[in-house]
Amino acid sequence: MKKVTELLERYLMPIGAKLAANKALNAVRDGIAYAMPLVIVGSLTMLIANGFSIDAFKTWLIDNGSFDWLVKITNGTFGLMGVVAVFGIAYRYAQELKVDGVSSGIIALSGYVISTPTIMPRQAKVSH
User: Fold this and answer.
1) d(Cα 24, Cα 83) in Å, to the nearest integer?
2) What does the pLDDT look like over 76-105, one tens digit per residue?
3) Using CA atoms, how far apart are residues 81 and 89, in angstroms rounded to an integer?
């Protein structure tokens, strides 16, 4: 066991230290951490909405109307995760570079919304 520990310390510790010092990777880690509450809430509501794999419980949720609300919460939280992560990553990276984080987050979020065609409505064709 001692040899394995020595081997890991000798070869993997320098790689780990370089990765830990990388500003971009730290920003990704911290930015995605902002989305963790949404992951937790979305996952819990998904478990409940699926009735914990108990058919009778899921049928009861559908019959009393709770299922639709749980699905809306699940879809909403998972849909917002990308938005929060994009803002969070840009914000944290800007802080690492010692520039304005909020402005960077807004610019990144704007680019995300513009480049994601499924959330942008189609423009009407203008005839000349």
Assistant:
1) 18
2) 999 899 999 999 999 999 999 999 999 999
3) 12
C-alpha distance from residue 16 to each of 5, 27, 103, 127 (Å): 14, 16, 31, 59
Q: Both tokens of residue 19?
A: 């990765």
pLDDT in tens, 31-78: 999 999 999 999 999 999 998 889 999 999 999 999 999 999 999 999
Residue 103 in tokens? 């402005």
Could you please report the per-residue DSSP string of 5-71?
HHHHHHHHHHHHHHHHT-HHHHHHHHHHHTTHHHHHHHHHHHHHHTGGG-HHHHHHHHHHTHHHHHH
Cβ 94 vs Cβ 30: under 8 Å: no
Task: Report which of 85, 106, 69 is spatially closest to residue 33, judged by C-alpha positions.
Answer: 85
